[in-house]
Write a structure and sequence with these properties.
Helix 2 (50-63) crosses helix 4 (151-170) and helix 8 packs across helix 12. The termini are far apart. The longest helix is centred in the N-terminal third of the chain and has 20 residues, at 151-170. A hairpin with a 7-residue loop joins strand 15 (383-388) and strand 16 (396-403). 39% of the residues lie in helices and 21% in strands. The chain folds into three domains: 5-181, Chloramphenicol acetyltransferase-like domain (Chloramphenicol Acetyltransferase, 2-Layer Sandwich), CATH 3.30.559.10; 193-215 and 225-359 and 378-452, Nonribosomal peptide synthetase, condensation domain (Chloramphenicol Acetyltransferase, 2-Layer Sandwich); 466-556, Rossmann fold. A six-stranded mixed beta sheet has the order 10-16-15-13-11-12. Strands 7-8-9-3-14 form a five-stranded mixed beta sheet, with helices on both faces. It is of the alpha+beta class and 557 residues long. It comes from Clostridium acidisoli DSM 12555. Pfam families: AMP-binding (PF00501), Condensation (PF00668). GO terms for molecular function: catalytic activity; phosphopantetheine binding. One of its GO terms (biological process) is amino acid activation for nonribosomal peptide biosynthetic process. Residues 12-450 form the Condensation domain.
Length: 557
């Protein structure tokens, strides 16, 4: 890739906005990791003129000062500079000669998307490329660091790039742009105002008590996690039914899906309160909606779910609660967090819901386009849900980006996705039902749980205990493998000998009939030794997850 030529004349230093500072702080915990990469690609069906595309990108950069931002650090504090000019050479890749050019291009883009940005290199914090897939198909690839743009800003980038391309192709005039520096100054004024102090008090009062998270995890603030993506499509006719229902009840689609997630996770976790992180545009002025830059914030929304409420009642309560929280949306999440908790490892929420109704309705001259997002695969929250309605005539895609460690001990993500889709359909049919009466699993899943999983009929000798059956099998096939975990194996003979040894030790400690023994142990071969040893001693075992918070473990014991 050719290096960009940078103009050495820079404007004065500017502080990071409070929202940028949240991003910077977390990015510093994960140096050289793509946790804040955003973007995707535009699938262009038609021909593209590279020279016109190059000019369109150059104008895009010239019109949007956030794309010319450089983040620097001095004495432990970050600040930003805005370069007056960047000469950017758009990288062009021709993969049309590859045997499976589309598959190759998609895999190549995903790999490219996972590359982190280097803040120390004084290089761009964005990447725009053009990829030729075949004679009449191109991918316009974007990779942008979240510190200089957000999801809304990304939609502006796409629209403006298309508009610039078409204007150049048609020799039309350009339109004047607003500057991101306006927002930097606005944020500085806000942080020096009385409103800032009132907002801190609001959030401090709102979360005097922090509800228990839905997912039990033991993740330190600087531990890197890995995530995957599961997706589901809501057919346009079903989505239109949701919109009609919401219009009738004077609520929004966003209120509806917040209610769906609140209902589902309250039911499966038996929790009366569910906190969901809500990303917001935070573009409070009309001019803000025309500017590329990082404006977005996240606010914690506490949803109180009562089994006696109807879904409609819950949705209206969410509407009122969200309205109250919006009045205090300017306080960045980092500042909300520090006003509530001093513990960096305590999370306010572990589920987020983002409703993205961004306008991507634009096409390069003579082409048809589709927008696709990519995942950085390091989602910190247990679950991040994205509802993406990019075209009013097409089906709606819902992405579930889930942390792998969180779902190892929860319901399989495939079941969660299927059940939430079923819950949506159930609510549309009857929203007046009490929340406790709404079906959250479909008939197929219900049959599997109630019939197939319970079909445990087997012919065992009725006069033998499990210990006797196990010992007989160990005597018959001592060298057969009894337990496998990761790279460790244990034979029936070894398992039996170790279980007997443990049983003797437990009996000496008083374990016998009607004695319950707590097992605080990670998943391992030793866990099976422990179970068999307790049973052989005559006791009963009670497994305790070591990832539980200490107070929950103490309460259990």
């Amino acid at each position: 890739m050719l290096k960009e030529q940078l103009d050495n004349q820079e404007v004065e230093k500017y502080p990071l906005t409070s929202y940028q500072n949240d991003v910077w702080t977390e990015q510093c915990l994960y140096k050289n990791k793509p946790i804040y990469n955003i973007g995707g690609y535009v699938d262009i069906k038609g021909n593209i003129n590279y020279l016109s595309f190059q000019k369109a990108v150059q104008k895009l950069i010239g019109d949007n000062d956030s794309l010319r931002i450089r983040i620097q650090e001095h004495d432990g504090k970050a600040f930003q500079k805005v370069l007056k000019k960047i000469e950017y050479k758009v990288p062009f890749y021709d993969f049309s000669s590859k045997e499976y050019s589309e598959k190759f291009s998609l895999e190549w883009m995903q790999e490219e998307f996972l590359k982190p940005f280097d803040f120390n290199s004084n290089d761009n914090l964005f990447e725009i490329m053009l990829i030729k897939v075949d004679e009449n198909r191109y991918f316009n690839f974007f990779r942008v660091h979240h510190i200089i743009s957000d999801g809304w800003g990304h939609s502006i980038i796409v629209r403006e790039l298309v508009s610039n391309y078409n204007e150049i192709d048609n020799s039309q005039n350009y339109i004047e742009k607003h500057s991101y520096l306006e927002f930097i100054r606005d944020n500085k004024s806000y942080r020096e105002s009385d409103k800032y102090l009132k907002d801190r008090e609001f959030w401090k009062d709102k979360f005097k008590c922090i509800p228990q998270n839905i997912f039990v995890r033991n993740i330190k603030s600087n531990k890197l996690v890995f995530s995957n993506r599961e997706s589901v499509t809501i057919k346009r006719n079903t989505y239109n039914q949701i919109m009609e229902y919401c219009t009738k009840e004077k609520c929004s689609v966003f209120h509806f899906f917040l209610g769906v997630l609140g209902t589902y996770f309250s039911r499966v976790s038996n929790s009366k309160e569910v906190v969901i992180g809500v990303p917001i545009l935070n573009r409070t002025k009309a001019s803000h909606k025309q500017i590329v830059g990082h404006f977005a914030n996240v606010i914690p929304l506490k949803i109180e779910v009562s089994k006696e409420k109807s879904f409609l009642e819950l949705m209206n309560e969410i509407k009122m609660e969200l309205k109250a929280c919006y009045r205090h949306q300017k306080l960045s999440f980092g500042e909300i967090y520090t006003s509530i908790s001093k513990d960096r490892d305590q999370k306010l929420f572990d589920i987020t819901l983002s409703y993205e109704n961004h306008n991507y309705a634009a096409a390069f001259n003579g082409t048809k386009t589709d927008i696709r997002t990519l995942s950085h695969r390091h989602e910190r929250n247990a679950l991040a849900v994205f509802i993406r309605e990019f075209d009013e005539d097409k089906d709606v895609e819902i992405n579930f980006d889930y942390a792998i460690d969180a779902f190892e001990k929860f319901i399989p993500i495939e079941n969660v996705v299927t059940n939430i889709k079923h819950l949506v359909e159930s609510i549309i049919k009857d929203s007046d039902k009490n929340i406790n009466d709404i079906e959250i699993i479909n008939e197929e899943e219900k049959h599997r749980l109630l019939v197939e999983f319970n079909d445990t009929k087997a012919d065992y000798p009725r006069n033998k205990t499990i210990n006797e059956l196990f010992e007989k099998h160990a005597e018959k096939t001592p060298d057969d493998i009894a337990v496998v975990y990761e790279d460790k194996k244990m034979s029936y003979k070894e398992l039996n000998e170790r279980a007997n040894s443990l049983a003797r030790a437990l009996r000496e400690k008083g374990v016998g009939k009607d004695v319950i023994v707590g097992m605080l142990v990670e998943r391992s071969v030793n866990m099976i030794v422990g179970i068999m040893g307790i049973l052989k001693a005559g006791g009963a075992y009670m497994p305790i997850d070591p990832d539980y918070p200490e107070d929950r473990i103490e309460y259990t014991l």
